[in-house]
Amino acid sequence: MASVLITGTSKGIGRATAKEFARRGHRVIATARNPETLADLDVALDVTDPESVTSAVAKAGDVDVLVSNAGVIFYAAVEATPPDEFARIFDQNTVGALRVAQAVLPGMRARGSGRLLFMSSVLGRIVLPPAAAYAATKWALEAIVEALAIEVAPFGVQAALLEPGRVSSGALDDVTTYTLADDPYAALLNGGASRGEPMTPEDVARGVADAAEVSRLPLRIPLGDESTHVIAARRQAPDDVPFTVGV
Q1: Which end of the chain has fewer beta carbons closer than 10 Å to its terminal beta carbon, N or C?
Q2: Is 194 a catalytic residue?
Q3: Which domains are delineated in the chain?
């Protein structure tokens, strides 16, 4: 049985992941910014607040597995992206993940073991307008975790990136969108071509839990057929033109 700390468990992927780890018999420390939203969630962890992170990790005790899942998204063409909102999403999706990892790492290094699982996205490998800001936070996360995996390996700690495609979690049902007056980029909001049905949060949760239990973690773990297909297509595409395969 492992002790698993999960961020962003109030709904969607995080909630399903907490249930999956509990079903498998692990000790789960399910956290969210507002724990009062769930009767069975009693640890507050706001990844944008250093004091909240420190307090939550202290309450959690020894953490064997971190699932860094908390994140937000908005849509905007690059020209229409508010810099303050970009800074906010970057603070939550990327810097927030860094804060929590830094809080649990000393204990993992001292014990000589631990797993750090970061919820990235297929958009950590490609960019699809109008989600440039969100993709940028995931591309940055991918760089941080790749370096982290190298740094912590000598201490018996492993780090990995989880890369799902579209997920039917409800997170994309009512996304905040920023536009220009007489928006010249309105066509971007129509999105790209879909490839079948999206994954369910439960599908993703099983992939996350599997990653926590395998003997050796790969650095990057595509989750679902869509992610596997798109990432493979990106590898085959030339780098001198934008990649335009829709998800």
Answers
A1: N
A2: no
A3: 3-236 (3.40.50.720)
